Amino acid sequence: MSRGEYTVPFGKGELSFDLPPGFNEATVVESATVPPLPDVSASIQSALDSPIGSQPFRELARRGDRVCMVITDMTRPCPDHLLVPPMLEALQQSGVAREDITILVGVGMHRPSTQEEKVIKLGADVAEEYDVRDSDPLDAEKLVDLGLTSNGVPAVVSKAAREADLLIATGVVEPHLYAGYSGGRKAVAIGAGGERTIEVTHSPQMLDQPGTRLGMIEGNPFHRAVSEIANKAGLRFILNVVLDDIGRVVSLGAGEPELTFRQLVRSARSCYEAPISHRFDVVIGGVGHPKDVNLYQASRVATNLFFAPTPVVKDGGTIIMPAPCQEGVGQGLGEKRFLEIMEQSRDATQVVEAARKEGYPAGGQRAFVLGKVLEACEVVVVGCEHPALVEGLKMIPAQDMDEAMRFVERKHDAGADVLVVPHALHTLPVVGGSDRQ
Known about the structure:
Blueprint: E1 6-10, E2 13-17, E3 27-28, H1 40-49, E4 67-72, H2 80-93, E5 101-106, H3 115-122, H4 124-129, E6 131-134, E7 143-148, E8 154-158, H5 159-162, E9 166-172, E10 175-176, E11 180-181, H6 186-191, H7 195-201, H8 204-207, H9 221-233, E12 235-243, E13 249-255, H10 257-272, E14 273-276, E15 280-285, H11 295-298, H12 300-306, E16 313-322, H13 333-344, H14 348-358, H15 365-376, E17 378-382, H16 387-392, E18 396-398, H17 401-411, E19 418-421, E20 428-431
Parallel strand pairs: 3-19, 4-5, 4-9, 5-6, 9-12, 14-20, 15-16, 15-19, 16-17, 17-18
Antiparallel strand pairs: 1-2, 7-8, 10-11, 12-13
């Protein structure tokens, strides 16, 4: 990349920009370049035949068994069209009837998935020939209460998942704001969880704990809760992947949930975590499709950069994230609650103080964590198709990167340090590096 010319994702394309005249060259940090798997299908089959800590996948079920396979919704870039068909084929070879297989889309508190999205996720044959349904966190008749975890979190999950003879989950292992790393048991515990579980795991009391942090697994109470919930639900097998910045599979693993997840976290750390020497005045973080389809998801860039093991942006600094956000804030109940809390609050401090005092319903956690970011720095959203919503969320809309750079020029002097993170949801900048295992 030549001096003064920078590029970040924007929707399915890119935005290029220059820094203001007189500014020093920006530091650009990206995740490690890891070659993609040369034959993903062969790697999946090998993982199913020789899984981690488990007997071969084809031996886990037999004729008459009910099988539930939990997958993520379209807000997660999991390549289920590659992962699901080989497992379905193995189940059929084991004698499991097609009508005994449920594919459960774990939508959490997001909006229901459309049939078109199910086809994109799974392929037309699977989406049309199997029982593919969304989880429902609000319908008590579709949920089962499994008691409390050891740290007091209610374990409420989809009845379809709990009542299966074999419960399976797919997912992507990548940095996650609360769980440390996503994947593993989270698809079941949160994706297919009930509203009460999602509400408590995302409460101020949980998110204010120092161990609930991006990239942290050990001592993380959120991770502990979701692990126990999935165990209570009976999750026996996962097939998870690690992706590079452009969505290619660089690592995958299948087998017993805990052992498989731990192995993939080690792989993910080597891919995603990137050392930086210090904190920066201005951080420009790319979002990209599908996360930049709405402000609820796109705002994860700001919170990820702030809640890295050490905040990447200095207090009083600026975070810039380009995102078209065609769906506005988002269409799910959680997204609507996020917007309502932000719009009804005077400022970011009121958002945070009210949350700690009064709590919030599931979905409100995004307002809480974004409020904590906005107490410390300003966030500029570039190219959003709904600038009034950006203002309602206490952020600053900019029509394009030129306008954003003029904001930077007015606020910061030419000696300001600028960091560009083109893929800010797949890169975890770690100040001073990392010795975590």
